[in-house]
Fold this protein.
Amino acid sequence: MLYFASFILISISIWIGNAALCLFLGIILALCKEIPETFFTQKYGINILQTGIVFLGGSLSLDSLFELNSSYFLLISLYVITTFALVILVGKILGAGNKLSYLLASGTAICGGTAIAATGPVIKAKPEELTTAITIVFLLNAIAIILFPLAGDFFDLSEREFGAWVALAIHDTASIIGAASIMGEEAVEVAITLKVTRTLWIIPLVLGSAWFFRNKSSKFGLPLFVIFFLLATILNSLTNPSTDVVTILKAINKVCLLTGLFCIGTQINIKSLKSISLKPVILAVSVWLIIIPTSFWLVSIT
């Protein structure tokens, strides 16, 4: 019965394709039914998530950096680095926890739930830390889809300006596209193009995280799946696979990441949920309130 329920919920998760929902469905299953330690979601959840990260590397190309609008590349790179550092700094001030702050920094600066899911296994984050980070980012993204188009109309932004703004200020790709699509096709094209640049920062993020959080007693800090991630990215750059191949890789990545997040959710219990504090919420919201006007100003002068 537990296997059947898991299969149905995983299928629903993949069909809907929302990272936070996958996590929540896993949590709901764990709260309704005690999950034994020998169950596949407990034993293989992290492995499934790591497999998704490898396929993510296979869908990314280093060459893509040079195909993007050069006028925005430096801006986005500075934005990613500054935002990441800001979240870490504010997190230390608030005492939000090193790994939780790191997860929120990854999601805020780079690619929402995808960056958090990719970083979590690398830094050996606890399930409750992943839950907290993804939940907060999901809620902020939901708010963004509603408020950003209203702000775009109020400030009379062009589609190009609005697309650039949401590409910087909103965390998750789906939410960026959702907000941009309300404004028009040009806004979507600009938003997607600039978001790709942010997403490519997953590569140095995963590699840097693996080194920084490595076992200090180990001579070689990179986990095996990180090595495969890097090799997959290099292979993508050298072979320049067709659009169909990249689409398949992204689909496998999506299935693995969503399934892995569901499995992580089943590892959550009531005790771990009660441990979520107000500090990470304050951290994410306060940094976002800085990012929104700053990114608006940057877009207006570019």
Summary: The first helix runs from residue 2 to 16.
